[in-house]
Amino acid sequence: MNFEIPPGLTDLLQDFTVSVLKEKPDDLVDFAAEYFNKLKENKGNLSSNKREVAFEDDVQSDEEFAEPPPDLPKRYAAGRRKSVCAERYDPDADDDDCEKVVHPKSDDQRNRLQTAVKHILIFRALDDQQMQEVLDAMFERKTTPGDHVIDQGDDGDNFYVIDEGQFDIFVSDNKVGAYDNKGSFGELALMYNTPRAATIVATTDGTIWALDRASFRRIVLKNAAKKRKMYEALLENVPMLKSLENYERMNLADALVTKQYSDGECIIKQDAAADGCYFIEDGTCRIMMKKEYADDPSNEQEIAVYQKGQYFGELALVTNKPRAASVYAVGTVKCAFLDVQAFERLLGPCMDIMKRNIGHYNEETERIFGKQPTDQ
User: Rounded to an integer, what distance in angstroms lies between the CA atom of residue 19 and that of residue 23?
Assistant: First the structure.
């Protein structure tokens, strides 16, 4: 199922988010209720500012920003795009054959860039080849104190990753945060086709890496859309997840990370602490368990074989106990991994179903070993 974001919704939520960052309320729910009640009372002003949500086929924003941002250095102001049209990005209509951007780099630059992007969240869904395309397309930019990297209200031109340096974050001339020698910014304007929501100003000498708008969309957004569709198709066939709403399944798909294993590789180890659960994208997995009171406790016995579309690792998360069995790859295996934090946040509606699965698991182990395991 495809959902179309109505024009005005992104602006509405963006303004609310900015208000939260500025006010830092103790009770977010009360603040939200008061904020939207005031917004409703001032509906006339809202309409004049083009913030209303309207479901229309062709809506364009003609916002122009007549006044340039204050003290903007010329080398950053030149060529800066102004917000003229909030066009929608359609991953399916994007051309895969467009010319790839490559900015040559020294070995030192590439090593520094790889370190800087290692923990960037929006890159985690990319495979090795796609990640190399990102590294090729990014270019280095030096900053000095007072430089405005981006300005609130400008249209998005680049996504930025900090190599080194300190940068302040301003919303409506109010400082709301800072970056200290790490971090990234600028993706929201490129993802949602909205003006910049904040101003980023360098407070020290620094180095940042930039990824242009076209490359960001082609590599990051298009591949993220493809991966989400693939994960949604996988999750639709998991019986445990039938109780999830469509939007819950979409959130789950966004939280998954692909991991690949070679033949015989151990995916999870019996008695280890649980770090997440796994959904098999492709391949076969063998579930093995040690017999607790056997003469050779290291001798494992097969209790099940799982195929594409099946899942494992959830029992240890449900019971808050160590892994009850080991899982090995049979041939090359690709799994979609959901970490423990996301599991607890997203799979609450499925908890009762997963607990019912424990009974079936006990029956299988009792059939093989003659009794139920004491620690699952």
Answer: 6
